[in-house]
Amino acid sequence: MKLIIISTIVTLMTGFTKANKKSNTFDKSFIPSQKIADTLDKKTSQAVVFPFFSDLCDNKGYYDPKKYSVKELEGAHSLWFGNTEAALTAPSLYRLEDLDLVRQDIKQILARFDKDYAIAKKNLQSLTVVNTPYWQNLKKSYIKELDQDYEKEKIEFESFVNPKILLNNRYTKSCGNFANALNGSDENLKAEWRKLREQMSKRNSDPQRIMREFENRMQSADWKKYAILDVTVYGWGNCANELIERPLHDEKMNKEFESLFIKIDAECDEP
């Protein structure tokens, strides 16, 4: 079933004056004049339609072509809807085979990673957005996020062949316990690994499974590989990820995007 939603950016106000509040006498001064209604109709009739999608809706935004170009609206939509996320090619790291693959092909992996980053950054920098402080600053924020994601991911992958790289970077102050464990003695690594697994178990719906898996892997001949994977990916990686400055997709962003249009017609699927 589909729901038809009409969302109008220009709000017509009605109300009561303070003097007439007790008697509930309607203040006619708040009645929108025919002139205002005609102006809105005229604006809509002269507007150009910009089709765009959101989570569950196909939308038609009516905009003034004298104010914005299609390219600017496409750029704003990319920032608003999150289409700017960089497609940085990086192998998954969950199994021992993944760790072995990264160590074996680290040069090729980093070369591809550098290439993807350069392309993603160039695309972001060349993105045309609405020429207002809000949208220009938002674009800069996404570029900054990309730079920090790239830096974090590259450090993480390089650490599998050179863990010392974790000891001196912008994340050292907050994530130093994981860096030190990965560069310390076996006992230090085991202790940090156990602590991490205990924390993970508390956030999991099946905490016994998390600790049972840990105990089994601790007894494995490959325990150190398991420990390196966990402490690097779930320990250092998650810690560093929390320090990355990401644009906030909030109500302000929604309002800034909607304000680009005279009105928006939306045809939505039920969730």
Can you tell me about this structure?
- The chain contains ten helices and four strands.
- With 271 residues, the chain is an alpha+beta fold.
- The protein is elongated.
- The N terminus is likely disordered.
Query: In sequence order, what are the helices and strands, one letter per element?
Result: EHEEHHHHHHHHHE
**Helical segment tally?**
10
Shape: elongated
Intertermini distance: 10 Å
Q: Mean of the pLDDT scores?
A: 85
Structural class: alpha+beta
Low-confidence stretches: 1-38
**What is the radius of gyration computed over CA atoms, rounded to a whole number of angstroms?**
27 Å
- Find the count of extended strands (DSSP E, 2+ residues): 4
- Strand proportion: 5-15%
Strand order, biggest sheet? 1-4-3-2
Main sheet specs? 4 strands, antiparallel
What percent of the residues sit in helical stretches (DSSP H or I)?
A: 40-55%
Short description:
The protein is α+β, with helices and mostly antiparallel strands and 271 residues long.
